[in-house]
Design goal:
Layout: H1 2-14, H2 23-39, H3 42-50, H4 55-61, H5 66-75, H6 81-94, H7 97-109, H8 116-133, H9 139-154, H10 162-167, H11 172-195, H12 202-224, H13 239-253, H14 258-262, H15 278-281, H16 284-295, H17 310-325, H18 330-344, H19 361-375, H20 379-395, H21 398-411, H22 415-434, H23 442-447
Helix pairs in contact: 1-2, 3-6, 5-6, 7-8, 7-9, 8-9, 8-11, 9-12, 11-12, 11-13, 12-13, 12-16, 16-17, 16-18, 17-18, 17-19, 18-20, 19-20, 21-22
Organism: Oryzias sinensis (Chinese medaka)
GO molecular function: ubiquitin-protein transferase inhibitor activity
Protein name: Glomulin, FKBP associated protein a
């Protein structure tokens, strides 16, 4: 019955120009066609859709058959799977890209966490083909697609152990690789447009780069700030590490310099005309993620100039460390400690002057460190916090230590922390008594108060 209805409505449309298709024609085509797919009439449906006389009808209405077709392809249980795949391919080649995009995204967005990985695996390449068919005016559609894809990717559990990443237990590694392949031609287009832009195309190119930048920033703050990357010494081949490198390379493709992003909190950026306000264009969490990838994992190191002094790098990274350590989420706390430690180890002991304590973050970060050491439920993070806290103390000169100790004793309200600071004070007094007094004596400062 459904097959007969479908054949009849298609034959009826053969004799009509597209301008005379009515809502009833569309509804009949959709209802009968979907019923045919659900009833398994793959050979007949494929024959009707491939008929040369029906191509105008398929071009106009074929995209409405996507929902049941995609569900069959996801289940992978039907013995006629190659036939259904052939129908899917023909619709992708024949239907209009805008309607196809709507149909594909609707199916992607309806995925639950259990089917999100398979939906991405099935739909990413078709979505890429459809977007490339849109030509130069695809920026907004690309932005909508990337947002939907990331929303699905974020649903997937992240690997917590080396073994989970190696076996790709949750398929997130495969999805990241496929997402990198999906977005690659759009980054290439943006890169080419930077070197050969004309005033006529300037607006369209800026819009494309704006959408790609939003994608990079969302990926940095919603995925890469949550996942634990493993270095080459722990995992030789890491899909997640490779994906993070692709995102950093993508930033360069849209005209962003990594050092400008990392140092953004303390550098006055040139106003960039475009579609995004500063806070939207450069979210603080995304910039902190860039800093962590560059300084801790040394990704895209060839794109980062080596002329900046360790003190200047610390000064800039303190903003990112403060943001990360202000979180209550373990992944962000861990990344904050790692970034702070990596920024400190490049400094000589006793090299940080007291003047730095006039900068807000050089006092607020120690406060956050105290909270990590005393309130964090994870023992390994508390231990790491204590280690990094002591490392930070060692990097200040004598006067800075004195002022920092005063501040922490006044604000910590924790007996264990106060005891630890007093122990450090005793150590500094002992050191001061062993060496010739300089311009600032720790012991003299204490006795004068």
């Amino acid at each position: 019955m459904a097959l007969e209805r479908f054949s009849n409505v298609v034959q009826l449309c053969q004799a009509l120009p597209e301008s005379r298709y009515t809502a009833e024609h569309h509804d009949s085509f959709t209802a009968a066609g979907r019923a045919c797919i659900q009833e398994g009439h793959c050979n007949d449906v494929l024959s009707i859709l491939l008929d040369e006389k029906n191509q105008d009808t398929v071009s106009c209405m074929g995209w409405t058959l996507l929902p049941p077709l995609i569900q069959l392809l996801l289940k992978k249980e039907d013995q006629n799977l190659p036939r259904w795949a052939a129908i899917f391919t023909h619709l992708l080649e024949t239907c209009r890209p805008k309607e196809l995009l709507i149909g594909l995204l609707e199916q992607l967005e309806h995925s639950d966490p259990h089917t999100a990985a398979e939906s991405l695996h099935l739909l990413l390449k078709p979505l890429q083909k459809v977007l490339l068919r849109l030509g130069s005016r695809k920026a907004s559609s690309l932005g909508m697609t990337l947002s939907s894809v990331l929303d699905q990717l974020i649903k997937l559990p992240l690997p917590l152990t080396k073994e989970q990443e190696e076996t790709d237990e949750f398929s997130v590694c495969r999805c990241c690789i496929e997402l990198a392949d999906f977005v690659r031609p759009f980054f290439q287009e943006a890169r080419q447009s930077l070197s050969s832009r004309s005033d006529r195309d300037c607006g369209l190119e800026d819009e494309l780069r704006a959408e790609l930048l939003k994608f990079c920033m969302k990926t940095l703050s919603h995925l890469l700030l949550e996942v634990q990357l493993r270095g080459p010494d722990e995992l030789t081949e890491s899909a997640l590490r490779t994906f993070a490198t692709h995102i950093l390379d993508g930033l360069a493709s849209v005209g962003e310099h990594l050092h400008s992003l990392v140092f953004q909190p303390v550098l006055k950026r040139k106003q960039v005309p475009g579609f995004l306000e500063e806070e939207v264009r450069y979210p603080k969490a995304s910039l902190a993620s860039v800093a962590h990838l560059v300084f801790v994992h040394h990704l895209a190191a060839d794109r980062f100039p080596s002329i900046f002094s360790p003190v200047f790098c610390l000064r800039c990274n303190m903003e990112h460390v403060f943001l990360l350590l202000s979180s209550t989420e373990d992944p962000k706390l861990q990344k904050g400690l790692e970034l702070y430690e990596e920024s400190l180890v490049r400094l000589e002991d006793g090299s940080l002057p007291a003047d730095l304590l006039q900068i807000r973050t050089f006092l607020t970060v120690p406060q956050n460190m105290v909270k990590v050491m005393t309130l964090c439920p994870r023992h390994d993070l508390r231990t790491k916090g204590l280690k990094v806290f002591q490392l930070s103390i060692e990097k200040f000169d004598t006067e800075a230590k004195y002022r920092l100790f005063q501040y922490i004793l006044r604000t910590s309200n924790h007996s264990g922390v106060e005891g630890y600071i007093i122990k450090n004070i005793r150590t500094q007094i002992h050191v001061a008594l062993q060496v010739r007094p300089r311009s600032f004596s720790f012991s003299a400062a204490l006795t004068s108060n």
